Amino acid sequence: MNIIFLRPWVKNIVNNLNTWTLFLDRDGVINKRIPGNYVKNVDEFELINGVIEAITIFNRIFKNIFIVTNQQGIGKNYMTVEDLQLIHDHFIQSLEKERGRIDKIYFCSGLAKDNPPCRKPNIGMALQAKKDFPDIDFNKSLMIGDTESDMLFAKNAGMKALFHTDDVLFLPKDIPFDGVTPSLLSFANLLKESVVN
Questions:
Q1: Residue 176 forms part of a structural domain
Q2: For residue 28, is it within any domain?
């Protein structure tokens, strides 16, 4: 599937290098999902092909890059915060070996039924990032995710939203988004080519 863009905002990113902020979902975007289960340890954390390369490209284009991830497996006692930290440390170390970086990872361990402010589609994690990095401008921010809650998170915060899927049958039906990409690397390469051209 080719990348589909519904708005001319992509040109705005490449024309204003290092002024935009990128927010990334984790499961299904950076690593493979485990259907009906949670990634509970490093052994279960499997990167999607091209993710490391994509992030190293994004580092040259975006001012900041953050991961925002719902992790209610902690709230359900399937894993601990320490387990999650080990997973994230493993990922960051793999990324740094290729000279890539993520500025910060935010997670929400609250249960969906409790709907805590930090859990997407609520924007608590975005607000925390803004508190930690005051120069973030949500009007110049992009969220890439693979669920409807990711798209709503972006829209609730005033960001652009890029839906991550290789199957157009799974596009959100009644939720606004600004484009579609089959992978992080596909989008990264398009941005890189646009910068060169």
A1: no
A2: yes
